[in-house]
Structures are given as C-alpha cells and as structure tokens.
Amino acid sequence: MTYAVPKLLSFEEFIAEYGKNTRYELIDGELRDMDPTGPHEAVAGSIAGRIFVEIFCAQLNWLVPKNCLIKLLHADATALRPDVVVLDKAELNQEPLWQKEPVICNGSTIKLIAEVVSSNWQDDYARKVEEYAFLNIPEYWIVDFRGLGGLQFIGNPKQPTFTVCQLVNGMYQQQQYRLGDKISSHLFPKLQLRLDEIMPA
Predict the structure, then answer these.
(1) Mind listing the pLDDT tens digit for each residue in 127-177?
(2) Which of 42, 80, 103, 172 could pair covalently with 70 via S-S, beta carbons 3.0-4.6 A apart?
C-alpha cells in the first residue's frame, strides 16, 4: 500500500489559494483545517465581543479584526489564523503586508490572541504556546469549552477549561479556570468574565 505525500505549500501559495478562506491555516507548509463548527464560532464571537467592550470602555487604541493571519518571520511556510486577535492600531503602520492583506508579521502589533480549541487541540496547547511566546505576545487565551485537550494540559477528569497564558520573562505563566471561576486578565483588569457566560447554547 502506498500513501500520497501531501503537497507542501509556501506562504505565498497559501495566501493565493486559501488566504480568504477562514477555515484553513498553514503550519510548516501543511494545510490545517481548523474544523470550525457553529458552537466554535459562537464562542469565538462571544470572546471578541467581550474584548471589544473592554477596549471601548478603557479607550484603548486597539482593534479586533474580523479576519487576520499571523506570518511567523522565522518560519517561511507558516500562517496562523487566530480565532480572536487584538491589534495595536499604532503599530499597524510598521506592518509590511497589512495594506494589501490582513497579515501581521510583527509580534509588537499583537496585544492578545485567543484560540478556541477544536479537534487540532495539540496545536493550541503546545505549538502555539511556543510560537506566541516567541513573538512576545503579552497574553494568549486557550478556550477549551468542550474539554478536548490532553490530560497533561487540562487535568483529569477532562472538563471545560479557560487557560490564560501571561508572558513573563519570555515564557508563558498559565492559569486555568473552570466553570464558575472568574477569569483574570492582566491586559483587561476590569474584565468580568466566566467560562459559563460564553458557553454555546
């Protein structure tokens, strides 16, 4: 029995073929289906809405784009598509691709990323923790509303988990929250949020 080796894509090929298709991202040349479902999108939308309210109330010069790719400068064939990303408007003029494509290349432009965990949970809990820390992104939220992550990440028994990763000396310190817990964010100190409130119906 023979197996076909999947074709590896460059960043440019990915942008040309899949740049506007929010279902996919690119990791080391491999096309990754982000497996979005209605509940997944509902949770991502709820998080984006809560963040927007915090930005508005605090009068921060930040924005939450509808769609955004992150190009890792140290990885030519990787384009990550966060479920929610918060950008610093003041840094956008330093972005080489932003005027033509919704692509961010500089970690300094990104204030926060939130990933809603789906079937490819390994990327959210392992790969992206390293990548986002390398980019010096101050906060990274992992929203595992279905409790899909491995036992080493969310414990036993598995249950819905909201993990806040805060960058300290180049590495993320992680704090986990369960249903009923008040979530704490260094970036948004007045945030009033519990995992229960963003769970899909």
Answers:
(1) 899 999 999 999 999 999 999 999 989 989 999 999 999 999 999 999 999
(2) 80
Q: Taking 70 as the threshold, does the pLDDT of residue 96 lie above it?
A: yes
Structure tokens given for 29: 């040349």
pTM, entire model: 0.92
Query: Do residues 198 and 143 lie in contact, with contact meaning Cβ atoms separated by under 8 Å?
Result: yes
Q: Cα 78 to chain center, whole Å?
A: 14
* C-alpha of 17 from chain center: 22
Residue 88's identity, in one-letter code, is: D
Nearest to 196 by CA among 183, 187, 185: 183
Gap between the Cα atoms of 163 and 140, Å rounded: 8
